[in-house]
Amino acid sequence: MARFYSNENFPLPTVRRLRELGHDVLTIQETGKADQSVPDDEVVRFAKGEGRAVLTLNRRHFIQLHQRSPDHAGIVVCTVNPNFASQAEQIDHAVNAMQLLAGQVIRVDRKSRQSGSMSEHGLGSTAEWAPSSFSA
To answer: Which domains does the chain have, with CATH numbers?
Structure first.
């Protein structure tokens, strides 16, 4: 199972479900760094030092950090999903399919409410994950 460090904006119910699924998740709140506006690059550095992939909803900034310096323990960027259990299960599925998280960005998007995938409707991929080198 994966080791994660959840950013301040990451939903705690998703963290709890990931733990139920067997993942080791440390929250920024548990490190005593909550409400301190810790810069994103420091979040990545701390996570790397702990051997943990970052969990975040802050997609743009963390993808940019990855582009500047892909030397990290992994970054999982998610869209906001009020179905926390589903979000955790998507993350679980994505990371279990990976052999290595280090240096990777995994994108986890919320499932479409429409029937069929959003890609079938010409809106791009969702409910998909893909390690990538993103270009913003």
So the answer is: 3-121 (3.40.50)
Handedness of CA 106, 107, 113, 116 (dihedral sign): negative
Q: Are 90 and 108 in contact (CB under 8 A)?
A: yes
Q: pTM of the full predicted structure?
A: 0.81
Nearest-angstrom CA–CA distance, 61 and 67: 10
pLDDT band for position 12 (cuts 50, 70, 90)? very high
Starting at the edge strand found earlier in the chain, the sheet holding 75-78 runs 24-27, 3-6, 53-56, 75-78, 105-108
What DSSP letter does each residue of the chain carry, written as one string? --EEEE-TTS-HHHHHHHHHTT-EEEETTTTT-TTS---HHHHHHHHHHHT-EEEES-HHHHHHHHHH---SS-EEEE---S-HHHHHHHHHHHHHT-S--TT-EEEEPPPPSSSS-GGGGTS---S---B-----
